[in-house]
Specification:
14 helices; elongated; alpha+beta; Beta-Lactamase; 19% strand; 5-stranded antiparallel β-sheet; 5-stranded mixed β-sheet; Heat Shock Protein 90
């Protein structure tokens, strides 16, 4: 006993030392990664700040245009996003509904109402066929049957698949924009869905730019026609008197003098998806005033970025090291489980070999005992004949019992290839219990069987079904305390399914554990469990076309219910 305590204490100290070394290793790893990531992320910021401070005075003339470009780009992106969002909705509706559904006035009204609830600025919605005739219309005007076949936009949407118009007054007598999308139908013709939008959202986007009273922003088209109201250069549909630089779709800033004689900076940003361009006008003096406060803002941004980077790097480093630690632990556990599985396989092969070796002398003993019985039976003068025959029968019964044990051992250790045979499930359960009844008897655990009479025979694999019930009953034995109780019940669930439940009054499981009991390598037995038993059990039952359910409550026990088809439904190749 003292030796056992000494060995347990030594093992505990070695494990504690190993955990301490691992903790130090991960702490050092966390520190090194944190320092490295801080250097990688903050050093470029420091270098950029130094370079910027050095170049500030020599490049201020060039750099003052960046805020204008940024602001113009963001506003342009908001406009493009507004158009693209509406166009995407129209495309989606055109693709999701059939021509017949969109032709139905009630369906179109319902779709339009839903769009009005979700999106602003929509005025109406209409379906146009390949001939340019508006077949259905939802909106405040009487446009049903209107012919658009001669309109330029109709030809464009047929060819390009979508269309966004310039701002126009039209029949409605107020500024609005038309958006249309086409979809090819199965017969090769075009289905066109068209909606009109008011331009109130345009003013909201421009207002969100936060311009001071001396600045101006507005939309124009490629012809220079103003599409939104301008503070200084005209109303909607007037020609803009300013000249604009030409280039790609990125904002371009130039310095000019406007018709009022002011020195201004113009940011011009053409849209990539439509005929519009955004114009931002700022007085030159206003821009220079902004740059006088830039250094203090840059300092604030730099400090905020450094603080944010430190927080993010700390969190990322901690998460990364935790995952590395979990991966190391999982790899070590997997390696141990493979070792354990290999050991079990070796034990199975050894058991099969031992069973074969035992069967040979048992066969000889059986034959010799039978011969002795025959000799004694035919010798009428043999003394103590009855006693000798009784002893011989006892030998033969013991040999038969050994043979049954070795045959069960061979059947369970045999390679688990699926071989469908007709099984008596009650007999299989009793046979499986014969492997465990000694442990139950030793621990005074009561095994109660409620096996249904006339239970239909099932077609399944004997060895794999043995493994299923052996795993579940073995878990039940591990869960109950001495003098506990295990109840095994079988029944006919329906005409195609039989059921078996294994109920124990053990410690039970929590909801969290219940979610993971069928996961490979998950075990509540710590170093005594492999975490593979229930995962294998679940896989076998599912492979046979059955199902397994578990109910458990802590300190009340667990019920495993296995449902098996009378004919195993095994997939191809299994």
């Amino acid at each position: 006993m003292n030796f056992k305590n000494l060995w347990a204490g030594l093992t505990k100290s070695l494990l504690h030392e190993s955990d301490h070394e691992a903790t130090n290793r991960y702490r050092i790893l966390r520190r090194n990664i944190f320092i490295l990531m801080i250097l990688i992320t903050i050093m470029p910021l420091i270098i950029m700040a130094v370079i910027y401070q050095h170049e500030y005075h020599s490049s201020i003339k060039k750099e003052i245009v960046i805020p204008m470009q940024t602001l113009t780009h963001k506003a342009k992106h908001s406009f493009e996003l507004f158009f693209e969002e509406r166009l995407s909705v129209i495309r989606f509706i055109a693709a999701s509904y059939s021509f017949e559904e969109l032709s139905d006035q009630k369906t179109l009204n319902r779709i339009f109402k839903a769009l009005m609830d979700e999106y602003c600025c929509l005025i109406d919605l209409g379906l146009i066929n390949k001939k340019g005739i508006q077949l259905s219309y939802a909106g405040p005007y009487d446009f049903l049957g209107k012919d658009y076949s001669e309109q330029k936009w109709f030809q464009e949407v047929v060819v390009k698949g979508n269309y966004i118009s310039n701002v126009f007054m039209g029949y409605r007598k107020f500024p609005h924009v038309a958006v249309a999308a086409a979809r090819r139908t199965e017969d090769g013709s075009a289905l066109i869905l068209r909606t009109t939008l008011d331009t109130s959202r345009f003013d909201d986007i421009i207002a969100s730019m936060g311009l001071n009273p001396e600045s101006d922003a507005f939309l124009i088209n490629r012809s220079g026609i103003i599409q939104t109201s301008s503070r200084f250069y005209g109303e909607i549909l007037d020609h803009c008197p300013l000249s604009f630089p030409r280039g790609n779709y990125e904002p371009i800033v130039s310095e000019v003098r406007d018709p009022q004689g002011r020195d201004i900076l113009i940011a011009f940003a053409p849209f990539s998806t439509s005929d519009y361009a955004l114009v931002l006008v700022k007085p030159k003096s206003d821009v220079l005033h902004t740059w006088h406060t830039l250094r203090s803002k840059m300092l604030f941004i730099f400090i905020s970025s450094v603080v944010l980077i430190i927080l993010v790097v700390f969190k990322l480093t901690d998460t990364l090291v935790k995952r590395v630690k979990e991966a190391d632990e999982k790899r070590e556990l997997t390696y141990r489980e493979f070792q354990h599985t290999h050991k079990l396989s070796s034990i199975g092969r050894l058991a099969a070999g031992v069973a074969h070796e035992i069967n040979n002398p048992m066969a000889i003993i059986n034959e010799k005992a039978g011969l002795m019985k025959d000799l004694v039976a035919y010798d009428s003068n043999f003394q103590n004949k009855e006693k000798f025959l009784g002893l011989t029968d006892s030998i033969l019964k013991s040999v038969e019992r050994c043979s049954a044990i070795t045959h069960r051992l061979l059947g369970f250790a045999r390679r688990m290839e699926i071989q469908l045979v007709e099984l008596d499930l009650n007999e299989l359960i009793q046979e499986t219990l014969s492997f465990l009844e000694k442990e139950a008897l030793y621990r005074n655990i009561e095994l109660i069987l409620h096996l249904a009479d006339n239970l239909p025979r099932i077609s399944s694999d004997r060895g794999q079904m043995q493994q299923v019930f052996l795993n579940i009953i073995n878990n039940a034995l591990a869960a109950v305390e001495d003098e506990g109780q295990i109840v095994i019940t079988s029944w006919e669930e329906d005409s195609d399914t039989v059921g078996v439940s294994i109920q124990d009054n053990g410690s039970g499981m929590s909801e969290e554990i219940l979610k993971s009991i069928f996961d490979p390598f998950f075990s509540t037995k710590q170093e005594n469990g492999t975490g593979l038993g229930l995962a294998i059990t679940y896989g076998i039952v599912k492979k046979m076309g059955g199902d397994i359910k578990v109910k458990s409550k802590q300190r009340e026990g667990t019920i495993f219910s296995v449902y098996l088809p009378q004919k195993a439904k095994i997939g191809p190749g299994e």
